[in-house]
Specification:
alpha/beta; nine-stranded mixed β-sheet
């Protein structure tokens, strides 16, 4: 039998369903990858913001990871919200123990609504311990600025930040450009340790963008699990998340989520139109 591609997310739960492990698992499913998860934190969250966070004990996070990797395994692993230093360190131990090579680190520090999701000492642990073990790190401009200590607000500073983060040890760094002001394109700067590459696309004027970063990093993990080379995985993930943004969902009273299941929505709409042809009024 053909092996089923498997990906694992180690991240927080978004009770509103738009980001975190919910977005990750939807993305895995949309790309025909079996998804497993280790929950690092519970959030009380909706389209308007985060009203509460309950971190999972680090030992139990480690126990969840072991339960998955000892049995199901994973062809790629991504991390999202890790909440505190103890959880970061538990993930580092698991990465070493299970020799995880296809590790996608999305350094979730602040939510879409500006809510702090990571303690200061956890940022230090990211820099010293987790980022050096990553295949790829995918910060947005604000997260990159927090990691490198200077503002990231232009293509030039994106490149500077990518180079500085690469010096921490990962093989690839993608500094996302969706938060860069006053530009017409959404350009992510990819640094492979030697050269810079631009992953560019039109800046989509969409209101519903919650979960963009989670969906992008999860898509990278899914494509890696499917056996795509790293550079191809990055490009295809960029295209995937652009379509997810384009088909964002109007739910709730605030910033709605992107739609990782966009392909199924388009297919369903097409099928509904075809079924309606010839029906009596």
């Amino acid at each position: 039998m053909k092996k089923t591609p498997r990906a694992m997310t180690i991240a927080g739960s978004d009770s509103g369903g738009g980001a975190g492990i919910q977005a990750d698992l939807k993305t895995f499913a949309a790309l025909n990858v079996y998804g497993a998860s280790a929950v690092t934190a519970l959030t009380a969250q909706n389209t308007r913001g985060v009203t509460g966070i309950h971190a999972v004990p680090a030992a139990f996070v480690e126990q969840q990871i072991a339960a998955i990797l000892d049995d199901i395994g994973a062809d790629a692993v991504k991390t999202g919200m890790l909440a505190n230093r103890e959880i970061v360190e538990s993930v580092v131990r698991a990465v070493d123990h299970y020799r995880i090579e296809r590790l996608v680190v999305d350094p979730v520090i602040v939510s879409k609504h500006g809510d702090l999701l990571l303690t200061d000492d956890a940022v230090e642990a990211y820099i010293a311990e987790l980022i050096p073990r990553a295949l790829v790190v995918t910060p947005n401009a604000g997260e990159a600025a927090r990691l490198v200590g200077f503002a990231v607000d232009s293509l030039d500073t994106q490149r500077e930040a990518a180079r500085a983060i690469a010096a921490m040890g990962p093989q690839f760094v993608i500094v996302k450009g969706g938060h860069i002001p006053n530009v017409r394109t959404a350009t992510d700067i990819l640094f492979d340790g030697k050269e810079f590459h631009a992953l560019s696309g039109p800046r989509l004027r969409q209101h519903h963008t919650h979960g963009t970063g989670c969906t992008f990093s999860a898509a990278i993990a899914a494509y890696l699990a499917l056996g795509q080379p790293a550079m191809a995985a990055f490009g295809r993930a960029k295209e995937f998340v652009a379509r997810a943004i384009e088909h964002g969902l109007s739910v709730g009273q605030g910033v709605g989520p992107v739609n990782p299941m966009w392909a199924y929505r388009v297919q369903s709409q097409q099928e509904n139109r075809e079924d309606a042809v010839g029906l009596p009024l």
